[in-house]
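tokens incoming
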């Protein structure tokens, strides 16, 4: 029997289960046409399959906005027509000559230029592939050829036995050895460069100009300045055309990376809109993909158009940022979106708060733009919905559902199971009482992905896929309503969707919200609601600061509870006084469960009124209970006007220290939930899982999820979630920390694909053991620091303790060196709204060793959606303005670590807000820099006397510590262990571990900090008092004054010449400074004057005694004055060496004898480490370029400079290694930008 191809593809983007497919069959003209959908995501590929045209032939993507600023290019630098060289050539920011094509019309005469490093536009998962292709094309072949030549030259030299130094060579320098070293080093240099291969990618010149009417943009992808060979684009919304970067190769195997462009700030800012991943294209395809020749592959609303709102920033690993989210709201309003999808989210500490949430709520309630968002993938425990879905009731939050048809067609499962919610889909309710999950939709799809993946489509799953499915369904409804000119607002659509959603038994409201979205029924109800004035407003429900009733803690469920819930009618800005006056509703209130009681009648008018809701826990079942108070008008068939959610968590298990239970899983049983009130003294537990029966197999896959909630803490704080394969008759043991006096949810969930019956033995054992005094603060006492007394408390049966304290990082606090507050450009602001401002804080941080560094702002860290200031982002730069690292929220957990070297760095912290006054309060915001240090272990003692005498250390494990209190004493940090750079105010951080489980995992531990007082230092050292100076002569006093002056001025040089004339036989300082100043002039005559001056210096050569054993100056028997003179003499000889070397460079075929003799003399007077510059010059003079490169590369340890980088590149060219030099010239555009890069 033949298979219908359309049937095979029908559920690749599922639409049958949600009635979306049926809706289009009934209303083929309402397939999303006339609806604009904003996709807040990682960006969308404008060249991806299915995203080219709508069903009625219109452009699919009609706007692209880079809301996170990854693609921003500063084009404020202007080249005027008068600067054109050779007729049509201007100088690009990279230094390349850019040839302007003859047909470019620019009556303004202004050419805005900028530069963009390509790799700043490319997602990380693509970079490795691009680098591999570039290496194959631009590196590997040339490297192999160069290495072969270098090896052949080395072998030839060795075979020739060239050992004579040659005519005119200075005796004492073994040039044969140097030649051998040079040839060997060429081989090693090539191998090292290849081993440490790094590709910063090309830097493209960018040009923006106006033809008097519209902007034009060109990016020099030729990298040669041939602009005629490059694409000329207009801002995307004007022509709907995109550009394409050919990544990795110039050949047919190039990776195609599509992008759009925009121009802002009157041409001073170019925006290149790329992608930070494939996620956004997939999401857009689910919503609205259209395949004219293969309609069975279409998205849910193929007629809809798309606005790309890129909020996933490449700077922070494709994560959303506060600034990008706020800018996306502005862009959604500016581009007239009808509905927005956001398949992103994070856990939050504070619900229904923050600038981002405020803007999202305004987007729906003020600007009538529907907002659909993913619930999250943090289940299966309750209360795991992330923001923004968790933080505003205006958003439609979507859970992920999987059907049998999806299992067969998307996942190719042989034996499908019952349709269900995915195991990992987040569950409600929100800790502030809101239901959390609004509806469910199919959470898997095979949909388009970007061309750079070199795939057409891909299977992805998650609530990220469920949200756009629901978004597409709602877009169909909007298409019909708009086409028929039927009134709607966000409130009526939300009510229609909720009140028609299809509950799926036995799945709960926590999993699916009100059920699976039903497009046909929701549309029908939306039409009915259009004529109901009470449905055109929305109702704000609050109990205090909460949005619902959620009783979970032991004291909340121990007795009946009464709550007053406020109901406040909310109107749009277009509402008139008559609308408010006419609101007079007589409502019927009905609880859905017997354990909830409320008044039967409720009158509501334009005023906040309260409803008393009573909850009786004894009437409810053990475990999780959900109910609602439904408010109906007389017209009940259109569903409740509003709903008051009520959640009650009754303990499902009585606490027993050693708890055993048999769990039985049927084919349709996916989850067992347990709620246990943890009593005082319990701090950790062990969980053992033993499968006793598994139908038709030897193993099964399960999720174990334990969760405890605390006020104003993210659910991630006390969250234990792990997946395991359990084998038949084999015990799996786990350990987890718990919180006393709190309800713990423990879930054992089978993976959603698992089928068949299973019996599982679960054993849960609880233990005690807690510690006090978690902050370790120093104070003045014995030896400067007193030991700290800790109290170990064991409330339960005996435990084994393993006390251990380690300090692993050093944190230094910085205040800003400067700040600035400026209004942000107009494209950040909603027309007619308040202006957004940005506070820029500058810090200078010092890193004390090579390694990973974490930077964060403590008052704003861990706040994203709930951040009261709207935005924070920091950027770290080196002395060359190169951007080294970026971070946003959640920086303190180390996710944005930067590998830095020893030195000083600049940090810019940007904070955005719509109130300049609020930003004024943050101008002294503290920044923390945390560096990894070698672990410092602190001794732990069992009594106070031992801690003072450093005796009786409790380092070994102590078994069977019975109930009671036990003092422990943290000793002082061992002498010399505090890093020398740690000064007063520095904090050493680490952890204190008291108890480990049998596998050695720490289960009772706490973070600790050791705050250094003024008496703490790295190593004790006695400072010598400065030796009083002898009576100074007049010329010495003049020199001291001179050293404070500007050394680059002509007056300084003239003054030095005058002093040298007055005191020709005296102070070395005058002559040395005069030589150094002459060298800066880079004039041959002055070089000769340097030689003359140094030759005129009279000194006793007997003072220059070399200790060859130690390779350093012996100064034991030389007076301090002579010691200083020796160093001055060496510096003077170095000046002479530099002068001779410069003269030789200016002289073709120069005689190097004098240079060699002086180098030999310096080598006898000073150690090699003090002659690096001279050694480099000497090697270069004799064409020992590889040896010179090695010496120069050693200097890179302390940071690169433009001069050093250029010098090495020049040497590569002299060695005919152009492929390395070309690579390094690309690097220079990234390593040494002319301006700071930020967003």
């Amino acid at each position: 029997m033949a298979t219908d191809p359309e049937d095979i593809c029908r559920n690749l983007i599922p639409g049958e289960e949600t009635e979306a497919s049926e809706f289009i069959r009934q209303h083929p003209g309402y397939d999303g046409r006339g609806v604009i959908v904003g996709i807040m995501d990682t960006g969308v590929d404008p060249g991806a399959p299915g995203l080219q045209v709508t069903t009625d032939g219109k452009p699919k993507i009609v706007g692209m906005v880079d809301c996170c600023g990854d693609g921003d290019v500063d084009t404020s630098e202007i080249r005027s027509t008068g600067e054109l060289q050779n007729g049509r050539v201007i100088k690009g920011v990279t230094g390349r000559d850019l040839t302007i094509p003859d047909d470019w019309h620019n009556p303004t005469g202004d050419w805005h230029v900028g530069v963009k490093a390509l790799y700043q536009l490319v997602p990380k998962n693509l970079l490795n592939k691009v680098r591999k292709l570039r290496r194959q094309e631009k590196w590997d072949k040339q490297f192999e050829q160069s290495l072969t030549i270098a090896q052949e030259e080395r072998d030839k030299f060795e075979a020739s036995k060239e050992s004579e130094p040659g005519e005119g060579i200075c005796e004492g320098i073994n040039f044969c050895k140097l030649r051998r070293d040079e040839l060997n080093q060429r081989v090693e240099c090539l191998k090292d460069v290849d081993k440490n291969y790094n590709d910063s990618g090309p830097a493209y010149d960018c040009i923006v100009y106006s033809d008097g009417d519209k902007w034009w943009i060109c990016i020099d992808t030729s990298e040669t300045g041939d602009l005629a060979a490059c694409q000329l684009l207009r801002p995307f919304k004007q022509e709907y055309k995109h550009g394409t970067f050919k990544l990795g190769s110039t050949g047919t195997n190039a990776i195609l990376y599509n992008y759009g462009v925009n121009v802002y700030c009157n041409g001073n800012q170019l925006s290149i809109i790329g992608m930070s991943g494939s996620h956004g294209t997939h999401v857009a395809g689910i919503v609205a993909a259209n395949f004219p020749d293969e309609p069975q592959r279409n998205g849910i609303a193929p007629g809809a158009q798309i606005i790309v709102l890129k909020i996933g920033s490449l700077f922070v690993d494709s994560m959303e940022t506060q600034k990008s989210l706020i800018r996306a709201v502005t862009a959604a309003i500016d581009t007239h979106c009808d509905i927005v999808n956001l398949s992103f989210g994070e856990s939050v500490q504070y619900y229904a708060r923050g600038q981002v949430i405020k803007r999202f709520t305004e987007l729906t309630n003020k600007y009538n733009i529907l907002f659909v968002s993913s619930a999250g993938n943090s289940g299966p425990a309750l209360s795991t919905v992330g923001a923004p879905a968790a933080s505003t009731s205006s958003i439609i939050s979507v859970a992920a559902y999987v059907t049998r048809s999806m299992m067969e067609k998307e996942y190719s499962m042989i034996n499908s199971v019952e349709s269900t919610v995915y195991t990992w889909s987040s569950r409600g309710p929100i800790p502030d009482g809101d239901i959390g999950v609004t509806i469910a939709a199919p959470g898997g799809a095979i949909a388009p992905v970007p061309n750079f993946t070199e795939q057409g489509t891909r299977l992805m799953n998650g609530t990220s896929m469920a949200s756009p499915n629901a978004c597409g369904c709602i877009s169909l409804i909007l298409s019909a309503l708009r086409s028929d000119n039927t009134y709607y607002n966000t409130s009526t659509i939300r009510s229609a969707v909720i009140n028609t959603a299809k509950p799926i038994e036995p799945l709960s409201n926590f999993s699916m919200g009100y059920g699976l979205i039903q497009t046909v029924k929701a549309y029908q109800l939306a039409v009915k609601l259009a004529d109901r004035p009470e449905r055109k407003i929305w109702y704000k429900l609050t109990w205090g600061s909460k949005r619902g009733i959620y009783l979970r803690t032991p004291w909340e469920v121990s007795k009946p509870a009464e709550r007053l819930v406020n109901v406040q009618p909310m109107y749009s800005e277009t509402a008139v006084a008559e609308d408010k006056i006419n609101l007079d509703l007589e409502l019927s209130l009905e609880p859905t469960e017997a354990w909830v009681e409320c008044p039967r009648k409720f009158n509501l008018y334009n005023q906040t009124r309260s409803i008393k809701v009573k909850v009786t826990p004894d009437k409810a079942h053990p475990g999780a209970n959900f109910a609602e108070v439904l408010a109906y008008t007389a017209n009940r068939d259109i569903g409740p006007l509003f709903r008051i959610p009520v959640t009650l968590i009754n303990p499902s298990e009585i606490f027993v220290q050693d708890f055993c239970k048999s769990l039985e899983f049927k084919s349709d049983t996916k989850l067992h939930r347990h709620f246990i009130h943890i009593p005082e003294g319990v701090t950790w537990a062990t969980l053992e899982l033993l499968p006793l029966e598994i139908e038709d197999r030897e193993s099964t896959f399960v999720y174990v999820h334990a969760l405890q909630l605390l006020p104003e803490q993210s659910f991630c704080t006390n969250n234990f979630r792990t997946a395991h394969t359990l084998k038949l008759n084999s015990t799996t043991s786990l350990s987890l920390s718990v919180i006393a006096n709190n309800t713990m949810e423990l879930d054992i969930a089978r993976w959603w694909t698992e089928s068949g019956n299973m019996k599982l033995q679960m054993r849960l054992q609880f233990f005690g053991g807690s510690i006090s005094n978690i902050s370790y603060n120093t104070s003045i006492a014995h030896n400067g620091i007193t030991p700290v007394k800790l109290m170990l408390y064991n409330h339960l049966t005996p435990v084994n303790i393993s006390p251990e304290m380690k300090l692993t990082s050093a944190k230094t606090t910085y205040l800003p060196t400067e700040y600035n507050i400026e209004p942000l450009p107009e494209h950040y602001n909603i027309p007619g709204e308040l202006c957004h401002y940005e506070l820029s804080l500058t810090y200078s941080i010092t890193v004390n060793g090579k390694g990973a560094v974490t930077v964060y702002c403590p008052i704003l860290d861990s706040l994203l959606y709930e951040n009261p200031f709207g935005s924070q982002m920091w950027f770290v730069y080196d002395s060359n303005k190169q951007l080294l690292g970026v971070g946003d929220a959640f920086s303190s957990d180390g996710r944005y670590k930067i590998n830095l070297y020893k030195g000083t760095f600049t940090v810019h912290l940007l904070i955005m807000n719509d109130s300049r006054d609020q930003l004024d309060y943050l101008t002294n915001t503290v920044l923390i820099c945390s560096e990894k240090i070698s672990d410092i272990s602190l001794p732990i003692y069992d009594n106070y006397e031992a801690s003072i005498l450093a005796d009786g250390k409790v380092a070994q494990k102590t078994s069977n510590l019975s109930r009671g209190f036990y003092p422990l004493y943290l000793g002082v940090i061992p002498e010399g262990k505090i890093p020398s750079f740690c000064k007063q105010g520095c904090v050493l951080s680490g952890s204190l571990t008291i108890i480990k489980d049998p596998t050695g995992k720490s289960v009772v531990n706490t973070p600790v900090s050791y705050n250094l007082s003024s008496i703490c230092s790295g190593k004790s050292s006695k400072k010598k008092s400065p030796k009083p100076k002898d009576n100074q002569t007049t010329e010495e006093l003049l020199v001291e004054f001179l050293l404070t002056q500007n050394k680059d001025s002509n007056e300084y040089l003239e003054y030095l010449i005058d002093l040298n004339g007055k005191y020709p036989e005296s102070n070395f300082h005058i002559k040395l400074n005069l030589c150094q100043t002459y060298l800066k002039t880079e004039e041959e005559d002055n070089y000769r004057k340097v030689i003359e001056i140094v030759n005129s210096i009279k000194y006793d050569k007997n003072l220059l005694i070399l200790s060859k054993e130690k390779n350093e100056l012996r100064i034991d028997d030389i007076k301090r004055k002579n010691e200083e003179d020796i160093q001055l003499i060496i510096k003077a000889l170095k000046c002479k060496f530099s002068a001779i070397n410069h003269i030789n460079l200016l002289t073709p075929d120069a005689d190097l004898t004098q240079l060699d003799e002086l180098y030999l003399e310096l080598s006898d007077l000073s150690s090699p480490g003090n002659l690096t510059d001279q050694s480099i010059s000497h090697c270069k003079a004799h064409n020992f370029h590889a040896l010179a490169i090695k010496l120069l590369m050693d200097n890179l340890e302390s940071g690169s400079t433009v001069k050093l980088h250029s010098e090495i590149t020049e040497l590569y060219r002299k060695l005919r290694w152009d492929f390395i030099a070309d690579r390094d010239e690309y690097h220079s555009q990234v390593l040494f930008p002319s301006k700071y890069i930020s967003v």
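note: The first strand starts at residue 36 and ends at 41.
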